[in-house]
Each structure stands twice: as structure tokens, then as C-alpha cells.
Design a protein that fits this description.
The complex is a heterodimer of chains A (about 110) and B (about 120). In chain A, strand 7 and strand 8 form a beta hairpin. By secondary structure, chain A is mainly beta. In chain A, the strands form two sheets. In chain A, strands 2, 4, 5, 6, 9, 10 and 11 form a seven-stranded mixed beta sheet that branches. Chain A has a four-stranded antiparallel beta sheet with strand order 1-3-8-7, with no helix packed on it. Chain A is built from no helices and eleven strands. Helices cover about 0% and strands about 55% of the residues of chain B. Chain B is globular, with a radius of gyration of 14 Å. Classes of the chains: A mainly beta (about 110), B mainly beta (about 120).
Chain lengths: ~110, ~120
């Protein structure tokens, strides 16, 4: 199975900050990764697919990059509604796997 | 508007069975691959399995640890997805989400919409 390792596991930020979350795959997944946002007690929401493509309706403050094994999610101009846990996942090969999550908090 | 609504969760004893449903609306259900993903209390997301569409003969994929106990099926006429869970274990306790997947330019399918989830509690 492909292991997805996210870092950091949590980070503290302030409104207006730009934050970057990293995801590393245990082997190459080309650009077949996505990013998901989950707020406490809520369903996941898909933000990005294919490493850098925004899902419909997702604001451009979210951006993704990378290929192969190393990927990043950047959130610019952090707003209160952006404080959540973010997961990467690979959709390159079965079984699909997720990173452990990064909690973005005050 | 894409909507996915799960149902069928509840309390079940170890060794028991449960069938979850996911009612889809707002899109052409039959075109899409569909997934189940679960989340144990306080833990991260875990992929359960996928069912492809009719064009791909409704073939399925599963997490290795669940294969043999869990079965995914769909009824395109009813716009519904199902998860049959047998021989349930305490560690199967989780919120179970259904998710729609769509292809990228390479034909690899990624989650795009999620349901609100249904809680399954396995306990004696």
C-alpha cells in the first residue's frame, strides 16, 4: 500500500496568514492526489484533485502543487472558516489511502 | 445540487450485520464511481471500497482488511449505493460516508462530493 505522510500534524496560525501543508507519498503517484477539508463534526469536503485542480466552487485561496512523491497544499489569507483538519489522499492505485491529517488551529 | 444522504447506521452487537444505504440526487448517478469511506471516533479517514459504473461492469475494489466481510453494491434505477457489513467487530465502529468520484484527465477517479455520514456503533 502507498503510505501518505502529512506534516505537520498540527499548526497554529492567525487570520490573514498563509499556511502550507506537506504530503509525501511512499512511492510515486504522478499527480493523482487530492486534498480534503473537514471541520469538527462535519462531513469532508473535497478541495483539490489531480494535485492542483480546484473542485467546483472552491475558492482560489486554496492551491495545490507537486508531482511524484511530494505535494503541498497552500491556504492564503486564512479566515476563521478555514480552521479545520486537512487530509491528502492518493487516487493513483488501490487501495486508496489518506494522510493522517493536519489540524489548522488558532 | 449534488446530494448524498446516508442511512442505516445504528448500534449492532459484535458478529452482527448491518446494511447502509446512500441515496443520491442532483446528478446522473449511473455515470459515476461511488466510494465508502469511514472515520473511527477521533481518528482520520479510511477508505472502505469502491464500485465502478455500468460501463466498467460494476466492478468493485476493497480495502484488504475488509474484503470478505464488506460488500458494496448499487442500484442505478433507485440512485442508491449500499454497503453490506457482516461479522462486525468493535473496531468497525465509525462514521461511514459515501462519496462520489469523478475522473481526472488521466481517467483516475477522485472524490468530489460527500454525504453527511451515518454512525455505526459495534458494541455488546
Amino acid at each position: 500500500d502507498i503510505q501518505m505522510t502529512q506534516s505537520p500534524s498540527s499548526l497554529s496560525a492567525s487570520v490573514g496568514d498563509t499556511v502550507t501543508i506537506t504530503c509525501r507519498a511512499s512511492r510515486g503517484v504522478t499527480t493523482h492526489i487530492g486534498w480534503i477539508q473537514q471541520k469538527p463534526g462535519k462531513a469532508p469536503k473535497s478541495l483539490i484533485y489531480a494535485a492542483s485542480s480546484l473542485q467546483s466552487g472552491v475558492p482560489s485561496k486554496f492551491s495545490g502543487s507537486g508531482s511524484g512523491t511530494d505535494f503541498t497544499l497552500t491556504i492564503s489569507s486564512l479566515q476563521p472558516e478555514d480552521f479545520a483538519t486537512y487530509y491528502c489522499h492518493q487516487h493513483h492505485i488501490y487501495p486508496l489511502t489518506f494522510g493522517g491529517g493536519t489540524k489548522v488551529e488558532f | 445540487e449534488v446530494q448524498l444522504v446516508e442511512s442505516g447506521g445504528g448500534l449492532v452487537q459484535p458478529g452482527g450485520s448491518l446494511r447502509l444505504s446512500c441515496a443520491a440526487s442532483g446528478f446522473t448517478f449511473s455515470d459515476h464511481y461511488m466510494d465508502w469511506v469511514r472515520q473511527a471516533p477521533g481518528k482520520g479517514l479510511e477508505w472502505v471500497g469502491r464500485i465502478r459504473n455500468k460501463a466498467k461492469s460494476y466492478t468493485t475494489e476493497y480495502a484488504a482488511s475488509l474484503k470478505g466481510r464488506f460488500t458494496i453494491s448499487r442500484d442505478d434505477l433507485k440512485n442508491s449505493l449500499y454497503l453490506q457489513m457482516n461479522i462486525l467487530k468493535i473496531e468497525d465502529t465509525a462514521v461511514y460516508y459515501c462519496a462520489r468520484s469523478s475522473p481526472d484527465s488521466d481517467g483516475h477517479h477522485s472524490f468530489d462530493y460527500w454525504g453527511q455520514g451515518t454512525l455505526v456503533t459495534v458494541s455488546s
